TrEMBL record:
Domain SCP: 240-348
PANTHER family: SCP DOMAIN-CONTAINING PROTEIN, SCP-LIKE EXTRACELLULAR PROTEIN
One Pfam family recorded for the sequence: CAP
Name of this chain's protein: CAP domain-containing protein
Amino acid sequence: MRFIRFLVIIFIVSLVGFYLLEKNELSPNEAVDQVSKILKEKKNMMETKEISEKRTKIPLEGDIFQWIGKDSNELTKELGEPFRNDLSAYGYTWWVYTDQKEQYVQFGVEENEVKSVYATGNNLSTEPVQIGQTYESMNNEFSFSEEVTYSKGISSYTFRLNEEDRLTRPLVKITNDVFVQYYFDTFTSKLSSIRLVTGDILLRHRPYEVEYRGSLPEKLDVSEEEWAEIESGMEQQIFDITNVMRKQYQKSGLQWEENVSEVAFLHSKDMEENQYFSHYGLNGDGLKERLGAKEIYYLGAGENIAAQYPDAPAAMEGWLNSKGHREALLKDDYTHLGVGVYRFYYTQNFLEKPL
């Protein structure tokens, strides 16, 4: 069986290698080496993708709003070492704290300073609001606006929120340099998660239409090695957030499936490189064919795809608010999950397998 699996892997790599040969004019050996290297790097970064029985509650005392601007040493002093450190595409590193079941918090740290916080799950200290609070009560309190302003030096910026933005991720200005995005589950009209962010990080993400006088920050020059690390981090974030979200909706947790993650990654990569967005590749193959090529056994399967979200948490909230994607995300029958991210293309492949 191991020999058969080895032959299948070689066959898949050869097919993708042929594609790279056609697109990038590499030699056959160079194309195979390139894909093999990518998959090997991904596999080496998957060691934390297991649901741990030993993780305890995140020892957050007081509300998460206090952390913006704090030194990262205070994080480790108060919360201990992070569960994981994930490089972002925006120059900062996510310090991830999670029990992989009910609580998930990640702190964006740049030059030893906390610049962003994303939090979701149960029993988190997020005063003055709470996960699960209704949209109506929060809108009454904060009066979600169509325009939110920010100024830095001689530059000024106005974030313009359309109706969908205001319903799913309204933006509230806390101070001149600190903002909060409230993510809502539009199917229940309740708060799903919270993101705190400084003005400069918000400009790097650009999640809303922005009108400005002055200049916008330039995009960072990210190396191929850094992209591999960023993508692997986002895959892990999607896996963890998926299980925390499923717990919120009384669904069982999913197990990581390595072979399926490779299938998902190659589909994300294919979509980005060929600039299309579909569950079906340009050759007409869908999820069934992609799983079949890997000889992956399953009773049922489903797929979520997303593109151009600024990061993994944003993609997760997008799936939660889309009917078909939500059904896959919260389906009772699924037992396993593989996630593949390439640049800003995201793929989730769910499986139902006997446990």
